[in-house]
Description:
It is built from two helices and four strands.
Amino acid sequence: MSDVRHVLVLPDRDAAEEVAEEMADRFGVAEEPQLVRDALAGEDDAEDAQWLVVVEDPAGRLDPAALNAFAEEYEGWLEKP
C-alpha cells in the first residue's frame, strides 16, 4: 500500500498553524504536519499566499471527508489527490 498524503489548503498562516496543532488532538496524527507557504501564481505579496498543511497518512486511516470538514472550519479545504 502506498503512502497517503493529505493536503489541506488554508487562507493564512494563523489558520494553518492552528490546524496543524489540532491534527494530533482531533485525528491522532503522530507525525507533526508540515506547513508550506503556497504563493499564488504571479503574486509577490505575502498577503496573497495560501498555506498548506501536509499530513502524512501512511496507514491510510484518515477520512478525507472529515479532513475536509475540519479544514472548512478554518475557511479552507482538502486538496483532491
